[in-house]
Design a protein that fits this description.
This protein has 237 residues and is mainly α. The protein has helices at residues 25-39, 46-53, 67-83, 92-108, 111-117, 125-141, 145-170, 174-188, 197-209, 215-236.
Length: 237
């Protein structure tokens, strides 16, 4: 794509495409998300999007400056899906836990798109809402602004970092998953108690645990540390 874009009020295509649909930013993003989920990162091209939409690829310039602009819109759409139907309960810690859980689960629902976009700042509406919401929970709980920002930084990087890691793992072919399970069962399971006493003592637990995500445990540890920090600020205040 080029770096030109049509103003929002002039974007809407009034004539249906060859497939009888009217283009919109939402339709393009949903189609891009589907293509990436089904065919990987290489599917995010103007030509393939045009074919999928039944539209001239040049018509996409009316909505997005370039492929990177479209990728940011896809990333923001994933955040929007994660926040859909969510409302705060009034318990800042429980609400942050639920936000983190939703962001992580939403990312794993579309691992290919997450691998591409987890490290990006979209600057779009859904991301802005997520940042405002998380900071509001922390400031409302009583954290000083500097502490609220530090905790938010750790919270969001943890969520997105685990999302990228777990999404990359989910995108692996089944043969790779089978090989990893075999490594825990035979390579680690075959280590001697004499030479590797700690692995030998815990290998059944390792084999069962390492196949899943550590995100729930890490999130709980982060929030427990945040609660401890809040208690310190409350005593000092």
């Amino acid at each position: 794509m080029s770096d030109r874009v049509v103003p929002p009020d002039a974007r809407r295509r009034r004539r249906p495409t060859k497939q009888g649909v009217v283009l919109s930013e939402e339709l393009i993003v949903e189609t891009a998300l589907r293509l990436v989920s089904e065919h990987g990162a290489d599917a995010l091209t103007v030509r393939r999007l045009g074919l999928a939409l039944g539209a001239d690829p040049s018509s996409l310039y009316r909505y997005f400056r370039n492929a990177d602009d479209l990728l940011l819109a896809v990333a923001d759409a994933l955040i929007g899906r994660a926040l859909r139907d969510w409302a705060p309960s009034g318990d800042w810690c429980a609400d942050l836990r639920e936000l983190g859980r939703r962001l992580h689960a939403g990312a794993l629902a579309h691992p290919q798109a997450t691998v591409l976009s987890a490290c990006r700042v979209t600057g779009r509406a859904h991301e802005i809402r997520a940042v405002e919401t998380a900071l509001g929970l922390l400031r409302g709980a009583g954290f000083p602004d500097a502490e609220a920002v530090r905790i938010y930084h750790a919270f969001i990087d943890q969520a997105l970092g685990f999302a990228a890691l777990d999404a990359a793992n989910a995108a692996l072919p089944q043969a790779a998953h089978d090989a990893e399970e075999e490594a825990w069962r035979t390579t680690y399971g075959g280590l001697s108690e004499r030479t590797h006493p700690n692995i030998a003592a815990t290998v059944p637990l390792l084999a069962a645990t390492m196949r899943g995500s550590a995100y729930p445990t890490a999130l709980n540890m982060l929030l427990a540390a945040a609660e401890a920090r809040l208690a310190v600020h409350t005593r000092q205040g």
